[in-house]
Design goal:
This protein is an all-alpha fold. 76% of the residues lie in helices and 1% in strands. Helix 1 crosses helix 2, helix 15 runs antiparallel to helix 18 and helix 15 packs antiparallel against helix 19.
């Protein structure tokens, strides 16, 4: 397993992609704190907060049939750059909507930004195997970057929004997208391995057929959506940070809770693989443990008597969710045919956001109409993770009974990758371990 410093020092392409992620993630959390502050100012209802979550997640599911084939057809670097530029422009719309006091327009701009993000994220994940063969290390570092930027971005975003206002926070978000695009522009092209396939083979339906025929890949693609069953607890962050603890609420407290979540995700994404190793069998078992850890944390959240205890609960839950994110991404990159990787990640991300937005909307409705309290929703989130734990336990038992062992299958570094129709693009060369690596 490669070291983090060695990967960054020796792989220029990954270093540029990682740098783009740093500034982009930082801006994302400036954006999040500012938007929740605006929504609280214009409405303040549970449904309004849940509406932000729906706007930030559901559109990704709706555009999945388009995004997947795009990522498996066009240069992934160009797709990521275009996504950054579009989001930079849409930030202006958020500022205009705030000044107009128009919540629907704010939601509309947010939806458009999320659609652009729905292109960026599958493209980034699908491109990673083209850049490096050290997938576990790269995913752990990327996950840790998201976590650190969540902690720093949420904390700094809370301070900036509180002292300088939401508009300046949003403008800074727009600048980060431009800086991210500049880093990506310095990378070499990242053509999709299946770009020369027939239109039928590049279709979204072909991707679904691939998942149906490869049950183990479909099971891995379900790991993040299963963790999202507890996503209602994430909806509660702005509520716990503004109204649950009398006299202790506002952007600073919302930032604190997001920062705690970021620190927990840092531990889950960066630390666990270094401690337990990156064998695929180990990764699968670590995923199993993540569900009950998150459930217990959300149950504790429902009993938190102070924002500090709430932050601790989010910290521990994020260790589990951060681990789930990195482990499932690594396993998918290792075991999915490269020609279908964009569509698989698009489906995974789309279904995850559908689940996340659905449970978030249900939680908001329960708070506004059903008479539920934030503590009730936290407890419900804990119980919702019991089913994913049972399902993944059964999958592990079934695969073991069939003699299906990841180490027997081999890791991606040791297995031949499918060759795209028409041969391997010129930009690729085979690494010593058999993994396509982009020339740097």
């Amino acid at each position: 397993m490669a070291g983090y410093r060695a990967l960054l020092r020796e792989n220029r392409s990954f270093r540029l992609l990682w740098s783009a992620q740093i500034v982009s993630f930082l801006g994302d959390w400036f954006n999040t704190i500012a938007i929740y502050t605006i929504v609280n100012e214009l409405s303040g209802s549970g449904r309004a907060f849940a509406g932000v979550m729906v706007a930030k997640t559901l559109p990704i599911f709706l555009v999945t049939p388009v995004v997947g084939p795009l990522v498996d057809r066009f240069d992934r670097r160009r797709l990521m750059i275009a996504s950054d530029l579009v989001r930079a422009v849409l930030v202006v719309g958020l500022v205009v909507a705030h000044h107009a006091g128009n919540l629907p327009v704010l939601y509309g701009c947010l939806v458009a930004m999320v659609i652009a993000s729905g292109v960026f994220i599958p493209a980034q994940r699908a491109a990673l195997p083209q850049i490096t063969e050290h997938l576990a290390t790269a995913n752990a570092l990327s996950g840790a970057t998201w976590s650190v930027m969540l902690a720093l971005g949420a904390a700094i975003g809370g301070v900036v929004t509180d002292r300088f206002g939401t508009d300046r926070a949003l403008v800074l978000d727009g600048v980060t997208f431009l800086v991210s695009a500049a880093f990506l522009a310095a990378m070499p092209p990242l053509p999709a391995p299946g770009a020369e396939a027939s239109a039928r083979d590049r279709s979204f339906v072909a991707g679904l057929v691939h998942l149906a025929r490869n049950g183990h890949v479909a099971a891995l693609a379900a790991l993040k959506p299963l963790m999202s069953f507890g996503g209602a607890a994430i909806t509660l962050i702005p509520i716990f940070g503004t109204s649950v603890f009398p006299g202790r609420g506002g952007p600073l407290w919302v930032g604190l809770l997001y920062a705690a979540r970021g620190l927990g995700a840092l531990v889950g994404s960066l630390g666990l693989i270094r401690i337990f190793g990156d064998r695929s069998r180990t990764l699968r078992r670590m995923v199993l443990v993540a569900y009950p850890v998150a459930a217990i944390s959300y149950f504790a959240l429902g009993h938190a008597g102070s924002p500090e205890l709430a932050a601790l609960a989010y910290f521990v839950a994020a260790i589990a969710s951060g681990a789930n994110w990195v482990l499932s991404t690594t396993l998918l990159q290792r075991e999915t045919d490269p020609r279908f990787l964009g569509r698989v990640f698009a489906v995974e991300f789309g279904v995850m956001t559908l689940v996340f937005s659905s449970v978030g909307w249900i939680a908001g409705t329960a708070l506004d109409v059903g008479g539920a309290t934030p503590r009730d929703v936290a407890h419900a989130s804990a119980w919702a993770l019991v089913l994913p734990f049972v399902l993944w336990s059964w999958i592990l038992w079934r695969d073991r009974g069939r003699g299906r062992d990841d180490d027997g299958e081999g890791r991606a570094e040791d297995r031949p990758h499918a060759v795209p129709p028409g041969g391997v693009p010129e930009v690729f060369e085979d690494s010593s371990e058999g993994q396509p690596a982009i020339r740097r």
